Amino acid sequence: MQPYHSSSNDFRSDTFTTPTKEMLEAVQFSSIGDAVYNEDINTIQLEKTVADIFGKPAGLFCCSGTMSNQIGIRTLLNVQPPYSILCDYRAHIYTHEAAGLAMLSQAMVTPVIPKNGNYLTVEDIQKWVIKNDGDIHGAPTFVISLEQTLHGMVTPFDELIRIKKFCIENNLKLHCDGARIWNACVKQNIDPKKYGTIFDSISVCLSKSMGAPIGSVLLGSANFIKKANHFKKQVGGGIRQSGIISSMALVAIQPGWENKLQYSHDLAAEMNDYLVNELHVPLESPTETSFVFIDLQTAKINPDVLVKKALKYGCRVMGGRIAFHYQIDRSLLNNLKMALKETVEYSKKYPFDHAGPTQIYRSESTDIINGDIQTFKY
Ligand SMILES: Cc1ncc(COP(=O)(O)O)c(C=O)c1O
Ligand SMILES: C[C@@H](O)[C@H](N)C(=O)O
């Protein structure tokens, strides 16, 4: 597969991967049925293929990971509110989905800081779960949502088994935000089907590390997917000829996908070693898959300086998170290393004290326009 090179220097996120020539060629032969009436063959094929890979009975194509997370959790909440969802304090469903849990699901959230600093354990959940014991002060926990991977970190499968056991014993539903669950499968060297035995619902993104231009597939039981489709329609997700999109996603998940993810993991590991062993830069969290999280606050690095130094060497970053994906040009790793070296040297001369929360993502873009570096709100 010969990817385009427009994202070859883009370390901002794996969401910037671009459709390959093979994907675009597939569009010419895509099915063109109306998917609202379940008449689009490529969309049906994609939903079934992803469901089979992860060992779930049914799948539902969604336009985005946010949509699949939000309608998935809404569907699991098949009881009367008040209720709540327990998740990691960094979870995307809580921090970056525009309060969908509050507005679409009318749910409270219990954001939990894991004691080990990396991933939630059953002990964390036991400590913060709100029991459905009739106490009218609380909003009982009905859904536990885990992110795999979270900031590139992998929750060990044995821990998932412990959490699942707790959920069964306490009548709790278990959702997975699997935006990068494919990366976890590669890292753990496990069959994706094993995740199907743990989670009631899984939001599997195709548009992140897998490189499809658009889309996710929500997985669950047949009845769950039937109801989720109702919520999908409600939020305007009933798009028509989605075969044009599904045909590209089918290319993205064709056999051998593990290799492109392993490539990104290898690049991340090389950058991790350079930052830790050469530049002695503190990291926010361990590098386990495709992300490296620089602890800008401790390193006293100004994110704007990092962004601009990277641009000087022809690379794009948006903060302390360095994202790797299969379209990154390996030769640019040295460019980014030089940019980081200069950034660290600059920061030693001019240490930057962060005020307020560190941002992983930025609601502004910095680029070289007409020869000079400009930052603008998008
Ligand atoms: C962990 C995680 N979950 C969900 C999403 C949402 O996906 P989307 O941007 O397609 O809505 C993202 C975004 O990339 C993400 O990083
Ligand atoms: C921006 C954020 O929503 C996206 N999920 C990313 O990881 O880049």
Automatic annotation (TrEMBL):
Pfam families reported in the protein's UniProt record: Beta_elim_lyase
Pathway(s) annotated for this protein in UniProt: Amino-acid degradation; L-threonine degradation via aldolase pathway; acetaldehyde and glycine from L-threonine: step 1/1
Name of the top EC class for this enzyme: lyase
SUPFAM superfamilies for the chain: PLP-dependent transferases
Residues the record lists as N6-(pyridoxal phosphate)lysine modifications: 208
Reactions listed under catalytic activity: L-threonine = acetaldehyde + glycine; L-allo-threonine = acetaldehyde + glycine
Enzyme Commission code(s) on record: 4.1.2.48
Keywords: Lyase, Pyridoxal phosphate
NCBIfam families referenced in this protein's UniProt entry, alphabetically: GntG_guanitoxin
Example GO BP: glycine biosynthetic process
GO cellular component terms attached to this protein's record: cytosol
Name of this protein: low-specificity L-threonine aldolase
Gene Ontology molecular function: L-allo-threonine aldolase activity
Family: Belongs to the threonine aldolase family.
Domain Aromatic amino acid beta-eliminating lyase/threonine aldolase: 10-297
Origin superkingdom: Eukaryota
Obligatory cofactor(s): pyridoxal 5'-phosphate
